[in-house]
Amino acid sequence: MTATRVLVLNSGSSSLKYQLLDMRDATRLAVGLVERIGEQTSRLKHTCLATGAGREQSGPIADHDAALKAVAEELARDGLGLDSPELAAIGHRVVHGGMFFTEPTVIDSAVLTEIERLIPVAPLHNPANLTGIRTAMALRPDLPQVAVFDTAFHTTMPESAARYAIDTRTADRHRVRRYGFHGTSHAYVSRATAELLGRAPEDVNVIVLHLGNGASASAVRGGRCVDTSMGLTPLEGLVMGTRSGDLDPAVIFHLQRVGGMSMDEVDALLNKRSGLFGLCGDNDMREIQRRMEEGDDDARLAFEIYIHRLKKYVGAYYAVLGTVDAVAFTAGVGENAAFVREAALAGLEGLGLAVDRDRNAVRGDEARLISPEGARVAVAVVPTDEEMEIATQTYALVGKDG
Predict the structure, then answer these.
(1) d(CA 81, CA 8)
(2) Nearest Cα to Cα of residue 20 among 35, 9, 36, 33
(3) How far apart, in Å, do the first and last CA atoms of the chain sit?
(4) Which residues pair with 32 in a beta bridge?
(5) For residues 330 and 48, what is the distance between their CA atoms, to the nearest angstrom?
(6) What does DSSP say about strands 215-221 and 145-149: parallel, antiparallel, or unpaired?
(7) What does each C-alpha distance from 152 to 19, 89, 321 come to in angstroms?
């Protein structure tokens, strides 16, 4: 029996998302989520897509080890257990791979050590990713475990885009450079956009706008990233749900010297109490839209700041690429908020960018064009599929090695 299934794990600090896929025809067999790990109110939601049956259980799940064992039990109930000979590999999302990891990698002790060394530049994500990997390796030590890195797609950026203008010796010593994130999404969406246009990825220049609670933009030339908005950490770039995005670094010094804030307090401010939430008290774009419709000035200003920053990046990446074939919107806001897409490109008709209002208003789960017929630059909505991208890269690596 040929092993064609891949289990994709995305381990957060208190959550575990998973999907089981069969790569023979790229179909999902099961999906699920364990949330509030480590609390008394933990919850596991599991769906077997082959049968459509869904199950949910609540109660304390102590740690990621217990969470993955619970997931294994749910999969086994559907005849999809981790002991199946059809399981080819487990693919893990790892947020930060630095410059060391430029492609999917089979995990061994040296890989684990390097991921651990990167914790200082990804303190919220890499520890959780490591926990999920170690738990999965303990359950199936005989099975290939593959790390797929959020940063890998962006390692093709030229040094002119990746370097900060600080002393190079200091930067190199402390690994300070622009890494970028959401790479699996940008890779998938840029390739899917080319497919939507009926062209090869190497023949298409795309600006990808990944707009969720975390948000990032990328300039993709011929299938390779040449610039992206996030930097050393996911804080740089666009206005996000709770993150500030770009700001003068001296703001940090000012808050410490004049405001008397500690480094930890400033860190929490910029990552957890800024962005849309900091501006208006809401980080849900649906709620912000409702408040704007009711005449709320704070919500309106927050939205205008969000759009202003987004429009600046579209223009900047248009300049970086020189020629743009498409702008693709993706992720929760990008896929669902038609008013955001329209506002982001309003006034850019001189660049060949426009949104057809009727097309833009149509909701759907498929990739689609929302630009007017015959537009110089295509504008698309392309649902992202990071799990499929991880599974595809994992299976390609396992097949290549096998």
Answers:
(1) 14
(2) 9
(3) 14
(4) 18, 46
(5) 26
(6) unpaired
(7) 21, 20, 20
Q: What is the DSSP letter of 331?
A: H
pLDDT per residue rounded down to tens, the chain (402 residues): 588 999 999 887 778 899 999 999 999 999 999 988 888 899 999 999 988 889 998 999 998 889 989 999 999 999 998 888 999 999 999 989 988 898 999 999 999 999 998 888 777 788 888 988 998 999 899 999 999 999 999 999 999 999 999 999 999 999 899 999 999 999 999 999 999 999 999 999 999 999 999 999 999 999 999 999 999 988 999 999 999 999 999 999 999 999 999 999 999 999 999 999 999 999 999 999 999 999 999 999 999 999 999 999 999 999 999 999 999 999 999 999 999 999 999 999 999 999 999 999 999 889 999 999 999 999 999 999 999 999 999 999 986 544
CB 302 within 8 A of CB 276: yes
Q: Which of 22, 78, 150, 282 is catalytic?
A: 150
Distance CA 207, CA 197 (A): 14
Q: Give the list of residues 6+ apart from residue 15 with CB closer than 8 angstroms, or none.
A: 33, 34, 35, 36, 37
Partners of 9 in the β-ladder: 18, 92
Please provide residue 277's backbone torsions phi and psi, each rounded to the nearest 5 degrees.
Answer: -65, -45
Q: Are 150 and 103 in contact (CB under 8 A)?
A: no
| Of 314, 361, 351, nearest in space to 215 by CA | 314
Contact yes or no for 21/388 (Cβ under 8 A): yes
H or E element in which residue 27 lies: strand 27-35
The answer to whether 203 is a known catalytic residue is: no
> Helix crossing, 285-293 with 297-321: angle to 10°?
120
Pair of tokens at residue 110 = 């040296």
Type of residue found at 380: A
Antiparallel, parallel or unpaired: β 224-228 and 326-330: unpaired
C-beta atoms surrounding 150 within 10 Å: 27
